[in-house]
Amino acid sequence: MAILDIDLDVLRQRTSMKWTRFGPDVLPLWVAEMDVLPSPGVTRAMQHVLEIGDLGYPGYESLPRAFASFAADTWGLTLEAAKLMPCADVVSGMAVLVDAFTPAGAGIVINTPIYPPFRVSGAVGERHLVEAVLTPEGRLDLDALEAAFARDDVAGYLLCNPHNPHGTVHTPEELESVARLAHRHDVVVISDEIHGALVAPEATFTSYLSVPGSENGFVVTSASKAFNLAALKAGLLIAGSERVAALWKLPYEVRAGSSHLGLLLQAAGLDNDRDWLAQLNREIAANKVLLASLLPGVGLTYTPSQGTYLAWVDASPLGLEHPATTLRSRGRVAFNPGTDYAGDAGQWVRINLATSPTIICEAVARIGAVRR
What we know:
By secondary structure, the protein is an alpha/beta fold. It has helices at about 10, 15-20, 40-50, 60-75, 90-100, 115-120, 140-150, 170-185, 225, 245, 250-255, 260-270, 275-295, 325-330, 355-370, and strands at about 25-30, 85, 105-110, 130, 155-160, 190, 220, 235-240, 310-315, 335, 335, 350. It has a 7-stranded mixed β-sheet with strand order 2-8-7-6-5-3-4, sandwiched between helices. The chain has a 3-stranded antiparallel β-sheet with strand order 9-12-11, covered by helices on one side. A two-stranded parallel sheet has the order 1-10. The relative contact order is 0.17.
């Protein structure tokens, strides 16, 4: 049975944000949670937790150990235990690092269009955002980055790797260039790598901390996206080799924000469900190909990306003033509006493809009904 093949009647029993924000007749292909059942190893771990009553305070070692093992086996990335610290989640983790390692009032660079919480994480402590727009192909514009880094006020850079919403998987060469620019201009790089395990079978993910010159940077990540565990708080702060001592000077409450269940169950997925994850990535890749084949029938186009389970689609050919709003109100299908990601992206929508092919086909049909 396919992983992304859950009956709609079952999905509509869920009470998460995805399934309760809009009316029951709206197909929700918006917020980044997947239409999957828990992976086998996660299910077994949860059952064991309940059987033995393992519901106490966090044991902080499980997720750092499991993630280091996964990173070594999957990406060839060696991470010593001292480099990894649990945290509540990626968004709050980025904010913690911005607040601790850049001065109040500094400029923080982001690459627009960008996942909306980057704006919240980058604007803590009266810091202001500096936009370095991606290329039309969704890749890093290194000239724009250098110009932003060269500003006297800029002290930090929030990198999204792979990029949300474009799904771009940054190359080692691009990341090495980022590290060189950051070193030249004394900018601290904080790389969100929560989608690092969600890449197409033919793609290769590169962690920022694996490239030369990244020793002064950080990664913030979690296995919650790969195993659909957003309900259970846990993430990781990972320090470059020159930042390890500083990482462990952060307040204890940073670690205390993670939950015991989040740490345990993410670790269970990383340890036991790598084959499940590989199948999931194959199904996501197939869903991207499916969307690309269907959209021309409603006047739209899409080129499958290598990373994430999200599609960034230009809806301007539909001729709608507010595509996401109109598609939801008239077509009863919910996508994220492009303006959430960039002020000038009002004609774009982000589509969540971590669902069944049947739901994707129905969603496109509903776009077509609005267009007609």
